[in-house]
Each structure stands twice: as structure tokens, then as C-alpha cells.
Amino acid sequence: GDSVTQMEGPVTLSEEAFLTINCTYTATGYPSLFWYVQYPGEGLQLLLKATKADDKGSNKGFEATYRKETTSFHLEKGSVQVSDSAVYFCARGNFNKFYFGSGTKLNVKP
Amino acid sequence: DARVTQTPRHKVTEMGQEVTMRCQPILGHNTVFWYRQTMMQGLELLAYFRNRAPLDDSGMPKDRFSAEMPDATLATLKIQPSEPRDSAVYFCASGLGGGPNTEAFFGQGTRLTVV
Predict the structure, then answer these.
(1) pLDDT tens by residue, A53-90
(2) Which B residues, 13 through 72, put their C-beta within 8 Å of a C-beta on chain A?
(3) Which among A65, A86, A85 is positioned nearest to A74, based on CA atoms?
(4) Which residues touch A16 (CB under 8 Å, ≥6 apart)?
């Protein structure tokens, strides 16, 4: 069935390190793909999205490219900050439903 | 600043009691989702409404859970009777349109503890 798979966390990085969080999906049709971020005690916030193959979503220094050939939507950031510490969720939307991955916790140390 | 509002933010109740969680979607949004978040299961879609009509509640235990939208500004999720395994954070989200590109805007959640 349709699903989203994320790399397991936690991921611990030093400030200014390069970040990659892997996400792959299975789906029928052509889903839209999203990254959401959840800060402690908060709800999820949309970080970025891509609606078709080869689209690149970007926001706040984060980027992800919709790769249809590898069914992936990996999240990257060139230089993380302590304030990026949060849980990141990959999600896909397709015909009215959202399905989320299990989330990847990111800890950034000063 | 438009946002999804959920009440209460925290709820502690005894097993067997009825629990009602409320959600005010963003004005003008026609799609409402209910999610449950636990450490073990992650985010689970419980139910989803479009234009106040329930379109999918297959993720919801039918025997004790019910979700309704009495009007366009209020969505409710009720558990009766509650059980300890229902302890989780319940999120409401709303969106506009409902097509594959619909962005979901999340509330801050209701943290439910059933003892």
C-alpha cells in the first residue's frame, strides 16, 4: 500500500554541519510531497513542498527535490543551527489524504 | 494570524470517562483532519471531513470514537468510554481545497492522559 519511510533518528549534528534526512515513498498516482517540522510542544508546521517530479521545495535554507525515478524526497540543509533542533516529518498527499512518515528527531549541538 | 485552535491543550481523565476535544479550523478552510500521535505509532490519520461531511474515518476505532462537525467553525472528537491506551496527542488540521496539493495547517494539539 501507499507509505512514507524516513530514516530513523535521532540525528545528532554539530552546528554548521550538513544535514540529510532520507525519505522514500510508495504511492499510486502522482502524490505531492511535503516536509513538516514539529518543535517541542507544538503542532506540525509546513516546511516545504513539491507537487511534481523534479520540483525542488525550499524554505529557511532547507531543500528537497521530488525524485520520481528513485521515489525519494530527501531533506537537506547546508549548515544547521541549534534552532533547527526539532522532529521532521516527511509526508505525501494524494487524493485528499495525508500520510506521514514516522518522524526523524534532529539534535543540533552548539 | 489565522491558525487552527484546539481545546483543551491538556486533559487528564480517568478510565471510563467521556472525553471531548474541540477544534476550530481556519476560517474558510473546507477540509478538517484528526490525527493521533504516539511514540509507538507516530502520526495516525483518524478521520477527515470535507465541507463538514465525513469522508474517511477508517482510522478511528468505531466502538468508542466519534468525530463530527456541527458547523463549519467547529470539529469535535469524542471518546466514550476512554481507556489508558487512548493516551496520546490529538492534532486537528485544516486545509482548503482537498486536492493532492492541499497543505494541512495543524493546531497545537490536545495532550490526553487517561489514568
Answers:
(1) 999 999 999 999 999 999 999 999 999 999 999 999 99
(2) 31, 33, 35, 42-43, 45, 48, 50, 55-56
(3) A65
(4) A79, A80, A81
Tracing cell 470517562 back to the chain, one arrives at B17
Q: 10 Å Cβ neighbour count for A26?
A: 13
Q: How far apart are the first and last CA of chain A?
A: 41
Report d(CA B112, CA B115) in Å as an integer: 10
Nearest to B102 among A43, A89, A93 (CB): A93
Residue pLDDT, tens place only, B2-23:
899 999 999 999 999 999 999 9
Identify the residue whose cell numbers are 503542532.
A43
Contacts of B33 in chain A (CB under 8 A): 98
DSSP A50: E
